[in-house]
Every structure is written in structure tokens, then in C-alpha cells.
Design brief:
Elements (H helix, E strand, L loop, with lengths): L1 E7 L3 E7 L6 E8 L9 H11 L1 E8 L9 H16 L4 E6 L3 H12 L4 H25 L1
Parallel strand pairs: 1-4, 4-5
Antiparallel strand pairs: 1-2, 2-3
Helix pairs in contact: 3-4
């Protein structure tokens, strides 16, 4: 069984998947969504869950720097509750994701070969990878 990590935004959901042993996170894809039209990408997520034999989903929780929940954190938790209703047999958990998008962008800039327009296309997938890797690292301690 595998774990997937999600970086949930207003327009996209970055998806990462663990290796079968649960040690390493790898970016999988970015799913286009439209939160305002209530299109959450659940059809594609269902395909990923089935294909990757997923049993746990880690959703990034974008807390404010002082640890409080703002509108995006509440939106991520709502997304998680909708997933729990859709897939009650899966474990849904949350991981503090403060600064993961900033960290992902810095990593790509340091690499030096990722242009700004390309970074926009992969930033959510990379943030999901960092969220999942942080979860896997904490779980193994």
C-alpha cells in the first residue's frame, strides 16, 4: 500500500506518491481543478488511488505563520472531509505545509535550469512531494 500527498489549491492539486516501502516521495502530477465551480478533480484522484494502491492520503495544511488556521487551511480541511465521504476506507491526515511552496520554488531556482513559466507548472507537484516526504520522515522516526 502507498501514501499520496496532496497540495490543494484553488486551481490545482499537486499529487505525490510514496514508494511501496513508504520511504521516498515522488511527484506524480498536477490536477487542474475549479474550486468555485465545485470541480475538485476527484475523478482523477480516484484513478490515482486505485492505480497506486493507496491507503493513506496526506493533505497539506497551510497554517498561518503563527499556527492559526486561515481560509486556505479551512478549504484544505473541507477538501479532506469530502474525500473522507467519497473514500471512507482511506486514512486522511494533514501535514503542516508552511513554506513548502517557497521551499519548492527555491529548490527549482537553485537547480538553475527551470524557467519561471515551467516552475509554475510543476510547483504544486513539488510542494506535494515535500509535504509527503516530511510526513514519511516523521512517520519513520
Amino acid at each position: 500500500m502507498r501514501t499520496i500527498g496532496l497540495d490543494v489549491g484553488t486551481h490545482t492539486v499537486g499529487v505525490a506518491v510514496s514508494d511501496p516501502l513508504g520511504w521516498i516521495a515522488q511527484g506524480l502530477e498536477t490536477i487542474k481543478i475549479d474550486e468555485s465551480a465545485k470541480d475538485y478533480g476527484f475523478e482523477r484522484l480516484g484513478e490515482i488511488i486505485k492505480a497506486q494502491d493507496v491507503d493513506t492520503i496526506v493533505i497539506g495544511l497551510p497554517l498561518n505563520m503563527n499556527g492559526t488556521k486561515g481560509p486556505r487551511a479551512e478549504a484544505s480541511q473541507l477538501y479532506g472531509r469530502m474525500m473522507e465521504e467519497k473514500w471512507p476506507n482511506l486514512t486522511i491526515t494533514y501535514m503542516d505545509e508552511r513554506l513548502t511552496t517557497v521551499q519548492a520554488e527555491r529548490l527549482m531556482i537553485e537547480k538553475g535550469n527551470v524557467r519561471r513559466n515551467k516552475r509554475k507548472k510543476v510547483i504544486d507537484k513539488m510542494a506535494a512531494t515535500l509535504i509527503l516526504q516530511n510526513y514519511l520522515d516523521r512517520k519513520s522516526i
